[in-house]
Amino acid sequence: MPMILAAFASGLLFGLGLIVSQMVDPAKVLAFLDIFGNWDPSLAFVMGGAVVVSSLGYGVAKRRGVPVLAPCLEIPSRRDIDPRLVAGAALFGIGWGLVGFCPGPALTALTFGPWQVPVFVAAMIAGMALFRIAPAKVQVSLRRTAPDLDG
């Protein structure tokens, strides 16, 4: 039960942060991404704050060595940049730039956003489901045919 309450509190705090920072407003996000037009740099402060808080959190977690609500500390160890990572990041960025939403803000905006938000979330869920049900053979083929961006 403590794990569920901690997850709920974290999600609630994250959602409130998205609302306060206006990350749930696609127009605000698109204005931030439009660096050659009517650029709004205010979301850079949101990003900077997130980097600082995350860095502090990782530092505390590494120093403690033992998490509060989990059996062991799991910090990602991979540092390589492979074609699949680059392709996924590119798709994420293209989608974000086209509609002004990424998954977290879209889920938060479900509670009060315009009709386009549920359409975006439904499309996002459908894409995840299609990847899950795609035969493993297709997934392996997609991984092999991803452009080699390492050089």
TrEMBL record:
Membrane-spanning intervals of the chain: 41-61, 85-109, 115-134
Pfam families: DUF6691
Source domain of life: Bacteria
Alphabetical UniProt keywords: Membrane, Transmembrane, Transmembrane helix
Protein name in the entry: YeeE/YedE family protein
